[in-house]
Amino acid sequence: MYVQSANRYKRSIPITTHPTIVWFRDDLRAADNPALYKAGLRAAPVICVYIREKVNSLRPLGGAANWWLHHSLKSLSSTLSSHDVRLVLKTGDPLEILSKMAGNIGADHVMWNRRYAPDEIDIDQKIKFALKGQGLHVESFNANLLNEPWEIKTGSDKPYKVFTPYWRACRPQSAPLDNGYEPSFKNQTELNVTSENLADWNLDPENPDWAEGFSEYWNPGETGAREQLEEFLGHGIDGYKDNRDVPAQPATSFLSPYLRFGEISPKQIWRTLDDRFGDNFSVDAEKFLAEIGWREFSKTLLFYADDLSEKNWKDEFDSFPWRDDPQGFKAWTQGQTGYPLVDAGMRQLWQKGWMHNRVRMVTASFLIKHLMINWREGEKWFWDTLVDADAASNPASWQWVAGSGADASPFFRIFNPIIQSEKFDPDGDYIRRFVPELKDVPKKHIHAPWAAPKDVLEQAGVTLGETYPKPIVDHKFARERALSAYKAMRS
Predict the structure, then answer these.
(1) Is 176 strand, coil or helix?
(2) In whole angstroms, what is the distance from residue 15 CA to residue 182 CA?
(3) Tens digit of pLDDT for each residue in 30-53?
(4) Where are the alpha helices (DSSP H) in 262-372?
């Protein structure tokens, strides 16, 4: 864990003429970046590198996350340039790249911010050991969490498996003690290091440009992150505790992709809340902070898991009788299930690269429990289509819905997509926005159009099975089938 006092940094950093390499990963910001800040304190040339790692054990980013990465790297490069610092892009094995770069420019320090997936930790430990063996000074820091996974333990010195006591222990000791770290650089000089061209990475889709609409919703980069936080605090946080479940309202923070790529840190968010609320956080601010806590909890689960995206946290689910249903899965991915709230969520995901959290739960429950398709298939789809696809939050959330995860919703809690729709989208505004073929259906019938009178559908221009699909599975039948499968697994 990096020290909290900027003055302590300044006392302990020797001034040197040897360059420092800062390796960026999921921390694509200049402000409140401890590795970058400490590199600047050395009063020596600093060069930054982002490596597109070619390591078999690492999970490749999905398409939507690659779109975000492209624009985030452009933003970061521009920010660093304003400090006369270069962002170098490389592809390959990070140890080879860092070792060669350090030798070519005479660097004596390499710094980065830590990551927490087991395979990432293994890679970083091997790199740190090898570089130190070459005489380099290597340091790593906590840049993206309030607390690192090993810092919050139960009274018996074990990691928490339930969120509420975890957050109860975490909350009092998580408030940032510092004012954040703004980087400052001296003695910058041009270093002879070649960089790859971002456009050659083909992260931004072109033929076809399926992400064309993303820029309407998102502004990747730390400037966009700060603007989004201010927008949320100005217009969204009041009433957040209740309104966050209403998908038609702009009542969520929309900060998840910015957090995922480290364009803003949880400590920056907490400091901003402190500036607004002081010592008296509102119930809405506390609820929002607890959502940041859920992200931290997921990182802890990831840290202690073998493979959170593949292995059931509860091994009793290893024998669950999943169904093979390619047609059902295709209908789900395309938002053609015949259940309006499910279809609205899946279409929002495709248009925006993001889905409202309440609807994420409903759509995931539908795939897992109505269609009985393996949660891993849904997790993979979200991994490829979410701009905020995160190695911890994505699989942890899918396992939560499936009942196989830590502190999970019981499998027998099966969301009724009709009741969920009536409760959280009572006027059908969210459905109409993303399922326009139902826009003229009265709110009384929009949640279950198959049950509407024929003349109502005719007047709304809806022909079931033609302009909008009939339900691909009956809710009552699906519920009973899922409960029977769960009972069989338990026996």
Answers:
(1) coil
(2) 18
(3) 999 999 999 999 989 999 999 999
(4) 266-277, 283-304, 326-333, 340-352, 357-365
Start-to-end CA distance of the chain, whole Å, equals 46
- Name the 3-class secondary structure at 79: helix
- Please check whether the domain covering 315-485 is classified as CATH 2.40.37.10: no
Distance CA 379, CA 284 (A): 29
Give the highest mean pLDDT range of 12-16, 191-195, 296-300.
Answer: 296-300
pTM over 0.70: yes
pLDDT over 60 (residue 10):
no
Which pair of structure tokens corresponds to residue 139? 């340091």
Which of 265, 217, 246 is closest to 357 using CA atoms? 246
Reply yes or no on whether the pLDDT at 15 is more than 70. no
CB 119 within 8 A of CB 57: yes
CB 341 within 8 A of CB 362: yes
The segment(s) of the chain belonging to CATH 1.10.579.10 are 315-485
**Architecture in CATH of 144-175+221-304:** Alpha Horseshoe (1.25)
The two most distant CA atoms of the chain are separated, in Å, by: 81
DSSP state of 367: I
| Assigned fold of 6-143 | Rossmann fold (3.40.50)
Domain with CATH 1.25.40.80 in the chain: 144-175+221-304
Q: Which two tokens stand for residue 123?
A: 């890679």
By annotation, the residues acting in catalysis are 291, 294, 322, 357, 375, 398
Secondary structure of residue 20 in the 3-state scheme: strand
Residue 5, pLDDT score: 39
Determine the Cα angle at 404 with ends 399 and 407, to 5°. 80
Half-sphere exposure of 125 (CA within 13 A, CB side): 7
Q: CA nearest 89: which of 224, 199, 214, 220?
A: 199
230-252, pLDDT tens digit by residue?
999 998 899 999 999 999 999 99
